[in-house]
């Protein structure tokens, strides 16, 4: 009984968090959230009905409940989260590889590797002399810290 309650609360929390985030994401929202919401919108009408959410949740529960006993154990939940994390990492690495493999031959040559742009270095090298000084690094870190704190704070009220 304890496991069923834990699973129900966990899945309910996921839905309770996901729906408001998606509603606030807007057209430039997080790509992962857009895909997540598109999965729920099974009829593709742009709206998500209660029935679609319930069907999605049932399918997600079945996916997580790998032994099919009708209960999600902590081990099953952890395994599911780890599998999702591994999938996202593999997708990100594949995108990075494809970006560097400019001739599309399935391998990155030394030339492709060495000609890959370094926008971070170029941004940090404020005076463009080809050297990132300690002062330039500190300035870049301060800019990143400021950007991160603004991002965490969210949009300013109008």
From TrEMBL:
Disordered, as annotated region: 64-92, 139-158
Biased composition (Basic residues): 148-158
Pfam families: EF-hand_5, EF-hand_7
Signal peptide positions on this chain: 1-25
GO terms assigned for molecular function: calcium ion binding
Domain EF-hand: 52-87, 88-123
InterPro entries named among the record's database cross-references: EF-hand-dom_pair, EF_Hand_1_Ca_BS, EF_hand_dom, EF_hand_pair_protein_CML-like
Amino acid composition bias (Basic and acidic residues), ranges on this chain: 77-92
Coiled coil feature spans: none
PROSITE patterns: EF_HAND_1, EF_HAND_2
Alphabetically ordered keywords of this record: Metal-binding, Repeat, Signal
Keyword flag Nuclease: no
Matches recorded under SUPFAM superfamilies: EF-hand (SSF47473)
PANTHER family in the cross-refs: EF-HAND CALCIUM-BINDING DOMAIN CONTAINING PROTEIN (PTHR10891)
Record-given protein name: EF-hand domain-containing protein
Organism: Hyphomonas pacifica
Origin organism lineage: Bacteria, Pseudomonadati, Pseudomonadota, Alphaproteobacteria, Hyphomonadales
């Amino acid at each position: 009984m304890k496991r069923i309650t834990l699973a129900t609360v966990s899945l309910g929390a996921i839905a309770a968090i996901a729906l408001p985030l998606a509603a606030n994401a807007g057209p430039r929202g997080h790509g992962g959230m857009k895909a997540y919401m598109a999965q729920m919108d099974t009829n593709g009408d742009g709206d998500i009905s209660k029935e679609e959410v319930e069907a999605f949740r049932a399918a997600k529960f079945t996916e997580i409940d790998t032994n099919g006993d009708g209960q999600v154990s902590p081990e099953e939940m952890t395994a599911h989260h780890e599998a999702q994390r591994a999938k996202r990492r593999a997708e990100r690495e594949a995108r990075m590889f494809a970006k560097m493999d400019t001739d599309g031959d399935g391998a990155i040559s030394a030339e492709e590797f060495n000609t890959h742009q370094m926008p971070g270095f170029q941004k940090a090298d404020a005076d463009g002399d080809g050297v990132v000084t300690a002062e330039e690094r500190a300035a870049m870190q301060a800019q990143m810290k400021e950007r991160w704190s603004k991002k965490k704070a969210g949009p300013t009220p109008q």
